[in-house]
From TrEMBL:
Keyword Transmembrane helix assigned: yes
Superkingdom per UniProt: Eukaryota
Keyword terms: Membrane, Repeat, Transmembrane, Transmembrane helix
Coiled-coil features, chain-numbered ranges: none
Protein name as catalogued: Uncharacterized protein
Species, as recorded: Platanthera zijinensis
Pfam families reported for this sequence: MORN
Transmembrane segments: 30-48, 60-78
């Protein structure tokens, strides 16, 4: 081992609060057991041979101090002779005490309160053991707010989330994400009324867009994209009913043009491709690839 490795600094391990409490209690239990064994004979003798309670208390405290000194002396003697490794006892005890004390000093309030967050947000509402739990309002730092139900400091249940640019969501949340049924309107006016899963539209729903005119889609979503069976009414008057994949017409579908022409057949990534048939109002039709 090199000299540099021999003088490498030792860092205290990070111990979770529950493990820290268990370690600290086990350490104190062993020490108090030894202390009790040292104090018991002297305390019993003083109890049997002392008639004055004040005299007994003073003598017992003296015996307690002496016994504590003996315990500490024995502990350091064991360390000196390498019976107890230093790395496995004292540093672990210190880290356990520090972790447990920080856990004790943590916020444990319950009831109505105002709680500033580390990221600049501000919460007003119900707390349980220092966590946002119940009904409350969280004002986001320079961006918007959430008003609704909370569980363990996360949006959970029914709530309304608004942003300064005009976007708004009202519906169900789970563990801080949109989950369940909800309605979302962004700052451009697009409207999503659908089922949500882990923060994204997923399931059956409706999307209305006013980009280059009004268009409307009703059907299935998967992870925020139109995917599955759906019906779309475009801003120019055309309609499509069929399958979608990744926001595009894909596989099989029927497309009706505004001039009453119709195409029924295969699609690939938004384009007609494969076997299909075109027809018009005068009865003419054409099929092929």
């Amino acid at each position: 081992m090199t000299p540099a490795a021999g003088h490498r600094r030792r860092f205290l391990p990070s111990v979770p609060p529950t493990r820290a409490l268990f370690t600290a209690l086990r350490f104190l239990r062993l020490r108090f057991r030894l202390l009790f064994l040292l104090c018991f004979p002297s305390g019993l003798y003083l109890l049997l041979h002392s008639s004055d309670s004040n005299s007994f208390l003073s003598r017992f405290l003296l015996v307690l101090v002496i016994s504590s000194g003996v315990v500490l002396l024995l502990y350091h003697v064991l360390l000196f002779f390498r019976v107890l490794p230093l790395s496995a006892t004292f540093p672990l005890l210190l880290s356990s005490i520090r972790a447990f004390s920080s856990w004790i000093r943590a916020d444990r309030r319950t009831g109505l309160a105002v709680k500033p967050c580390d990221n600049g947000d501000l919460y007003e509402g119900e707390l349980r053991w220092g966590k946002c739990h119940g009904s409350g309002v969280c004002y986001y730092y320079r961006s918007g707010k959430y008003e609704g139900e909370w569980i363990d400091s996360k949006c959970d249940g029914h709530g309304v989330e608004t942003w300064n640019k005009g976007s708004r969501y009202e519906g169900q949340f789970k563990k801080g994400l949109r989950h369940g049924f909800g309605v979302y309107r962004n700052h451009t006016g697009d409207l999503y009324a659908s089922e949500w899963l882990n923060g994204q539209s997923h399931g059956y729903g409706e999307h209305t867009s006013w980009l280059n005119g009004q268009s409307r889609y009703v059907g299935e979503f998967k992870w925020g994209l139109k995917q599955g069976i759906g019906h779309c009414h475009f801003s120019n008057g055309d309609t499509y009913a069929g399958e979608f994949f990744a926001d595009k017409m894909h596989s099989f579908g029927v497309y009706h043009f505004v001039d009453d022409k119709c195409y029924e057949g295969s699609w690939h990534k938004g384009r007609r491709e494969g076997l299909g048939m075109c027809s018009s109002t005068n009865g003419a039709s054409h099929s092929g690839r």
